[in-house]
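Q: Second attempt. The first request was missing the SMILES, so the protein and nicotinamide-adenine-dinucleotide are both included now.
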Amino acid sequence: MNRLSKALPSPLTTTPLATQPLYLSATDAVTLVRRLGLKHCIEGMAQHIRADFLRWPDFDKSARVAHHSQVGVIELMPISDDTAYSFKYVNGHPQNTAIGLPTVMAFGVLADVATGLPTLVSELTLTTALRTAATSALAAQNLARPNSRVMALIGNGAQSEFQALAFQHLQGINTLRLFDIDPLATTKLVANLSHSGLKLQVCASTAEAVQGADIVTTVTADKACATIVTADMLEPGMHINAVGGDCPGKTELAADVLEMSKVFVEFTPQTRIEGDIQQMPADFAVTELWEVLRGTRPGRDSDTQITVFDSVGFALEDFAALRFMHSAALKLGLGERLALIPQMVDPKNLFGTLLTSSRCTAASAQLSE
Ligand SMILES: NC(=O)c1ccc[n+]([C@@H]2O[C@H](COP(=O)([O-])OP(=O)(O)OC[C@H]3O[C@@H](n4cnc5c(N)ncnc54)[C@H](O)[C@@H]3O)[C@@H](O)[C@H]2O)c1
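A: Got both inputs this time. The predicted holo structure:
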């Protein structure tokens, strides 16, 4: 055996497992939330989201990339700062529930900017519900009247309980006025939240549910230019948390609701395409949430003003949620290392990973001749 064949190692190694990304499955995410408690997770996510919104200029931001079909949308949501990069894959297919699939399904990746190495591959379906609710409640903490206690919840599907509990824990909501065109969805919500301490009032229409509410959350799914909340339903001082209008041709608020309100958004270029303000002129005035959180622009101007959070979901919220889930999973020892990246002693010898160990030896021998 000559010097060179000795020097050529087998291209594969199994040792640096810690450099492989952590994989957090849907089951792991459920375990994580059960062990930490939903309240703790919503609060933790809201803190992470707030912290990241406060350093808004640090992020390389873009509107998400959306691929539309007749029945739904599939979107990619990338964002990064100097140290970490994330993206989320998410869909929106309102007709899915009729065939036993969720309307919204998601997964995502967190990666190290310095090397490009993925550090986390995670489910994001449950995480999206948590982060959306945390973002909505964070916005309401800063935009709704502080003494808001009654919330109308229109649309009682997959996201709805998370919205309800985030508003209970972060905003002090104690009464929910519920409406869904599918009564079974409301029955499910009532059963799920029967021990929550929230007072649950089932209503016969959106108009009835909105009556007397301090906050109105719309979280419906319908690929249509819907007008679920109309101007005649508004009462002075209401805060509207519009979550379901998040795609071109998919709205929940009538245009005059927006005209009568002060409107807040996540990332203006994305919301102009996807939010309820897609109905409005390109120069329709909006305030970005991060500006209110940083105190550079005012939120609500008076107790009688109507405020709207035109939520569409921004990549920054998933970045923050992924960071929260990653550190919580590491602390709890949840998830497993995913053999995603080929492990090589010589990182230039990717081809060597295709060779069997005997061929590897032969190749080494050939090289040494
Ligand atoms: N803004 C965000 O960040 C964000 C994040 C996640 C989901 N979403 C959106 O939230 C919406 C709800 O998502 P989901 O996962 O709960 O969907 P889902 O399909 O589980 O539930 C939606 C519910 O809305 C009801 N609904 C439809 N039209 C209605 C109407 N006119 N009046 C009352 N109820 C109506 C349906 O019957 C259903 O029960 C979707 O549109 C989704 O795209 C937004």
